[in-house]
């Protein structure tokens, strides 16, 4: 390995525009022995096919326990009711499990489904796969939207879905050769599981030539997924210019944990060479013209809008800070004086420019930035030079400010190890922030953490906690169980005030909050806690509309936004799209439209493309109907699994208001104005404790009223159950069990 | 590198010619019948002046191509490898000179490669292929 930082003693300055992006540590020296150690357990042949109008109409089912492999028909009813993507995943999972199934039962599945538009190359952000499983963290269905080449290459091999069930007792690699029509299940004991190593080895092992590497994609997890509930899946693609594999993550909810519990080491696909029309849409010209229009818009507007091509999603770090929205010290505060050290201009310098960074062909938004030449300072790969995928905003905020870490290179290292160990960066960020606040408040101490000093900003011990998790030992093992389990444990052990622990542990339904400060935006509080899968901003990101732009003044306005946006955003997951090109760039005249927050021209782009794929003219109403079917089906699915009711939409108070005196005092003016003007109390007559209590009562009552209004708008009972009438309206009455669950719960 | 240039004081924007440059490009280079799909365009503007749409081989498209299908050849001209092209049209959208062309019968786009056939075809000798320094790739 060439070392471009000869004599390095500490982290170098971040300005490294001249880093050679082709140099990094390689892991191929044992490739031949690793290949020789594989034992073929099953070989199965199939006829490769290409989609017609976006669908191949076939699902590939693999039971990794019994090695049963079969093709299943994607029925017209599936397409009519569930559309594709997340919808297909929910339907297969529904049929696979019972109300008693646990995440680690063999019946649980992992379903990977690109939607009908996934794999088109002309419109940015059109290569997504949806991954669905029963979550180890929430015990209800989780869905995760992920880039990388696996989904499109699966579809171009002949399958709309990959449905995996069963549990293996040996380390397995499933290799799907979509060029030759051969599927092999191999016992693969030798390769390490960490993704940056494994995906590189397998890309080289299964490609038949240097040129063939771009046709390989690997799905893998990592060693921390083996020992935690927060495992995630990496989806690879081969970056030709860098000459290395890159990774995108299906992060939330612990699907990587399910993957490793099934003893799957990797899924490998070898797809056919990608061309621009492999989906065989009905109207290619419309897709082509719409794509070119957005490419032009990105060229013209991105440099003066979001700079996604330069900084990726990390462009909003300083914006969040400026609006007091950047989660800092476990969501206590909304900004920090040192934020400039991890702000976008740092990433602009630290990420390699003059290259392409799309996670699928044709994504000219290109936000999958890569920081090259990172020399690791800790852990099993100490001294290795690696390329780090990211940091995205969520990583900069979650691994950075929320843990009080404002140093770019340690932040990159945290990001790197989360990825290669196969754990979700967002989840780890919220976990580390929680344990650091527990440490600050004496709920944890060195004795309880086994010697870890979890003071704010101590990135070395944050990393050590992660390494422990990957080794399956120490306090890292506890952290890897997630915030919900830690709260239960800390309360049971009597380590602190139970109410305080409940209030500051930022989870809902068992899933950790993603990295936006919602406490001053009622709509975003609902946007997080009224989700199907748990608090992830991909369902509703209303914080700017509500708090900054004041576009949602009434409960009804907020409820309307919490009706429309979750459905609109669900549609991306049904079709196989990324959401970022929808609203991280906009037409110049967008502010003049009737509803700028919706970005009407972009909505029309998506309707046009989805319609052009199948030969229909879609309207917004069609979109809302397709999404609402899946969204309400998923809600019923949650209820079927013993969750999904109002009680499960309860939010930790930290997400709604100030828990502690310091938090209250940091925004005293705002809170006292609220007490005076909205509660009708003169704060000067109250003690600090009384003011905090009065604010809390006001805010929790207000949230409760929001829940009533949203449920009503969604066609749910006040207990959160989709009504019989709403289900009939959506055509879900063809499933008697769905109607029965609604009825039993008062719907 | 080789770069196609036009002298607009000599080009009369088609008033006294038959767009021989476009004709030659479309038919001889790309085997297309319709000169509308040539890889250069000469337009007559409302005020009687002419406008040329030409590729200057700047290389922006090389930077944005996700398939590594656009590269400079030995002469410095940017050439599309049809085998590698995935038809994403990022090059079309990101070209500030609108130099890329599509034929609706093909998925892949195409562009001028500074071959000089149009130079020979121009009755007014308005076009020439010149040698210029190859610019650095930009951050796009």
How do you describe this structure in short?
Chain A is an alpha+beta fold and 747 residues long. Chain A is globular, with a radius of gyration of 24 Å.
pLDDT average of chain A, as an integer?
95
What is the tally of beta strands of chain B?
6
Residues in β-strands, percent of chain B: 15-25%
Number of domains of chain A: 3
Instruction: Classify the fold: give the CATH topology of chain B.
Output: Alpha-Beta Plaits
Largest sheet of chain B: 2 strands, antiparallel
CATH class of chain B: Alpha Beta
**Which class best fits the helix and strand makeup of chain B?**
alpha+beta
- Enumerate the strands of the largest sheet of chain A in spatial order, edge to edge or round the barrel: 1-9-8-13-10-11-12
> What's the name of the CATH homologous superfamily of the largest domain in chain A?
Aldehyde Ferredoxin Oxidoreductase Protein, subunit A, domain 2
Q: Examine the coordinates and then state which fold CATH places here, giving the name of the CATH topology of the largest domain in chain A.
A: Aldehyde Ferredoxin Oxidoreductase Protein, subunit A, domain 2
Question: Could you explain how this protein is built, in words?
Answer:
The complex is a heterodimer of chains A (747) and B (140). In chain A, strands 1-9-8-13-10-11-12 form a seven-stranded mixed β-sheet. Chain A has a six-stranded mixed β-sheet with strand order 3-2-7-4-5-6. Chain A folds into three domains: 1-27 and 306-517, Aldehyde Ferredoxin Oxidoreductase Protein, subunit A, domain 2; 38-270, Aldehyde ferredoxin oxidoreductase, N-terminal domain (Aldehyde Ferredoxin Oxidoreductase,  A, domain 1); 521-585 and 619-747, Aldehyde Ferredoxin Oxidoreductase Protein, subunit A, domain 3 (Orthogonal Bundle). By secondary structure, chain A is α+β, with helices and mostly antiparallel strands. Chain A has 28 helices and 17 strands. Chain B has a single domain (2-131), classed as Alpha-Beta Plaits (2-Layer Sandwich). In chain B, strands 1-6 form a two-stranded antiparallel sheet. A two-stranded antiparallel ribbon of chain B has the order 2-3. Chain B has a two-stranded antiparallel sheet with strand order 4-5. The longest helix of chain B is centred in the first third of the chain and has 10 residues, at 20-29. Chain B starts with a strand and ends in a 9-residue tail after the last strand.
């Amino acid at each position: 390995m060439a070392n471009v930082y000869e004599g390095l003693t500490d982290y170098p300055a971040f300005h490294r525009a001249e880093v050679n992006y082709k140099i990094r540590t390689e892991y191929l020296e044992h490739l031949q022995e690793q290949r020789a150690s594989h034992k073929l357990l099953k070989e199965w042949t199939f006829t490769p096919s290409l989609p017609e109008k976006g669908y191949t109409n076939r699902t590939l089912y693999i039971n990794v326990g019994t090695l049963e492999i079969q093709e299943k028909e994607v029925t017209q009813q599936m397409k009519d009711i569930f559309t594709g993507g997340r919808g297909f995943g929910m339907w297969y999972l529904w049929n696979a499990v019972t109300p008693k199934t646990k995440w680690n039962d063999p019946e649980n599945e992992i379903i990977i489904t690109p939607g009908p538009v996934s794999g088109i190359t002309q419109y940015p952000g059109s290569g997504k796969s949806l991954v669905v499983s029963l979550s180890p963290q929430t015990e209800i269905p989780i869905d995760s939207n992920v880039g990388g080449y696996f989904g499109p290459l699966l579809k171009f091999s002949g399958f709309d879905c990959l449905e995996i069930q069963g549990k293996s007792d040996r380390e397995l690699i499933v290799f799907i050769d979509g060029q030759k029509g051969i599927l092999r299940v191999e016992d693969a004991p030798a390769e390490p599981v960490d993704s940056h190593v494994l995906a590189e080895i397998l890309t080289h092992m299964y490609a038949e030539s240097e040129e063939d590497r771009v046709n390989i994609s690997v799905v893998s997890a990592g060693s921390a997924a083996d020992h935690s509930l927060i495992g995630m899946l990496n989806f690879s693609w081969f970056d030709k210019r860098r000459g290395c594999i890159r990774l995108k993550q299906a992060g939330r909810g612990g699907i990587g944990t399910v993957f490793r519990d099934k003893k799957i080491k990797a899924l490998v696909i070898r797809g056919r060479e990608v061309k621009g029309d492999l989906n065989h849409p009905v109207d290619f010209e419309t897709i082509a013209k719409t794509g070119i229009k957005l490419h032009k818009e990105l060229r013209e507007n991105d440099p003066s809008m979001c700079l996604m091509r330069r900084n990726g999603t990390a462009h909003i770090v300083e914006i969040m800070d400026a609006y007091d929205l950047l989660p800092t010290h476990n969501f206590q505060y909304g900004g920090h004086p040192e934020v400039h050290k991890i702000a976008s201009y740092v990433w602009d310098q630290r990420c390699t420019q003059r290259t392409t960074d799309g996670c699928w062909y044709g994504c000219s938004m290109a936000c999958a930035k890569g920081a090259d030449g990172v020399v690791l300072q800790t852990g099993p790969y100490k001294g290795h030079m690696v390329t780090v995928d990211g940091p995205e905003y969520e990583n900069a905020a979650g691994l950075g400010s929320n843990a009080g870490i404002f140093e770019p290179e340690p932040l990159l290292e945290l990001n790197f190890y989360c990825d290669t160990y196969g754990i979700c960066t967002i989840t780890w960020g919220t976990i580390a922030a929680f344990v650091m606040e527990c440490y600050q408040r004496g709920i944890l101490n060195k004795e309880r953490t086994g010697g870890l000093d979890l003071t704010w900003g101590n990135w070395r011990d944050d990393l050590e906690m992660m390494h422990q998790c990957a080794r399956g030992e120490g306090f890292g093992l506890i952290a890897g169980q997630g915030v919900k389990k830690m709260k239960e444990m800390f309360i049971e052990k009597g380590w602190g005030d139970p109410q305080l622990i409940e209030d500051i542990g930022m989870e809902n339904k068992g899933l950790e909050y993603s990295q936006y400060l919602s406490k001053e935006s009622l709509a975003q509080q609902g946007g997080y806690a009224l989700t199907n899968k748990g608090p992830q901003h991909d369902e509703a990101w209303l914080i700017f509309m509500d708090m900054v732009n004041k576009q949602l003044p009434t409960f009804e306005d907020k409820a309307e936004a919490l009706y429309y946006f979750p459905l609109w955003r669900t549609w991306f997951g049904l079709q196989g799209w990324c959401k970022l090109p929808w609203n991280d760039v906009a037409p110049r005249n967008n502010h003049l439209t009737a509803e700028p927050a919706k970005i009407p021209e972009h909505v029309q782009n998506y309707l046009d493309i989805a319609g052009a794929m199948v030969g229909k003219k879609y309207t917004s109403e069609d979109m809302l109907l397709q999404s609402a079917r899946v969204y309400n089906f998923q809600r019923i699915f949650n209820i079927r699994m013993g969750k999904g009711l109002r009680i499960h939409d309860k939010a930790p108070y930290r997400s709604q208001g100030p828990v502690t005196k310091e938090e209250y005092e940091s925004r005293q003016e705002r809170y006292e104005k609220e007490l005076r003007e909205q509660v009708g109390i003169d704060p000067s007559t109250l003690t600090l404790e009384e003011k905090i209590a009065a604010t809390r009562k006001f805010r929790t009552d207000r949230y409760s009223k929001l829940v009533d209004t949203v449920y009503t708008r969604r066609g749910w009972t006040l207990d959160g159950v989709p009504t019989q009438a709403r289900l009939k309206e959506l055509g879900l009455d063809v499933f008697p069990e769905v109607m029965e669950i609604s009825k039993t719960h008062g719907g | 590198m080789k770069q196609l240039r036009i002298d607009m004081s000599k080009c009369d924007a088609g008033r006294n010619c038959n767009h021989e440059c476009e004709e030659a490009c479309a038919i001889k280079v790309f085997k297309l019948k319709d000169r509308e799909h040539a890889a250069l365009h000469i337009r007559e503007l409302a005020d009687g002046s002419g406008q040329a749409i030409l590729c200057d081989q700047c290389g922006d498209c090389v930077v944005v191509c996700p398939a590594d299908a656009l590269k400079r050849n030995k002469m410095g001209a940017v050439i599309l490898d049809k085998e590698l092209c995935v038809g994403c049209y990022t090059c079309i959208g990101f070209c500030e000179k609108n130099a890329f062309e599509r034929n609706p019968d093909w998925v892949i786009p195409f562009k001028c490669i500074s071959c000089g056939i149009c130079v020979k075809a121009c009755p007014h000798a308005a076009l020439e292929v010149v040698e210029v320094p190859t610019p650095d790739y930009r951050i796009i």
